[in-house]
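Title: Prediction job returns without error message
Component: structure pipeline
Severity: low
Priority: P3
Assignee: unassigned

Description:
Job completed but the reporter wants confirmation the result is attached to the right record. Sequence as submitted:
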Amino acid sequence: MPSTAPRPARNPDPESRHTVTDLVTLDRTAVQTSLHVLSFARDAADWERPTPCAGWTLRRLVTHMTAQHHGFAAAARGAGDDRTFWLELDLGSDPSARYEESVRHVVAAFAEYGAAYEQDGRERQFVLPELGGSFSGRTAVGFHLLDYVVHAWDVAVTLDVPVAFPDEVVAAALAVARRVPATAELRGPGAAFAPALPAPPDAGALDQVLTHLGRSPVPFASDVSRG
């Protein structure tokens, strides 16, 4: 299942000045931004538009995004090893409502996790089967944050609407994006990511996130990313 979240490097914990609580807050902003831009899908034709994820329509992309929310929520609650939570299910006749429900689910699960961390200071492990193992809460929430900065951009490009994030959200996503290894396993045909693209000299932080993951900041110009 393609995902923008990076596979583990040898040391998977990104060096960050952000606390777990910070990352939960930043992630919530990214996720709510994805929900906002998706609200511009007005009719059935919008759901069949092509996206920057090669071969995926908007409906297919949002099906993936919905499943990832449920999977990460399960991981936050200690049930990430149950692959049924990660299944991509048909969104039915009201995909926006199904996506909104998944947003509420993951935001609540991450808030519960953050509150528990504040109480005992322990980073409970998140089992993320698609990434091949268990990760600290800081790392897992960082993966999710990156996913939804990029996927919010995907949706905005698809629907031809603007998208903007607070600087702190994009900076945190960029710190994670820079850790995606440039290996054949992860980059190239059939892999989760396209090879990184060169960023323009004056590229802002969001454009750097996109080019690190093989997306062109110029929509569809040379984009061959897989989602």
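Comment from assignee: result matches the submitted record. Residues 5-15, 220-226 have pLDDT under 50 and may be disordered.
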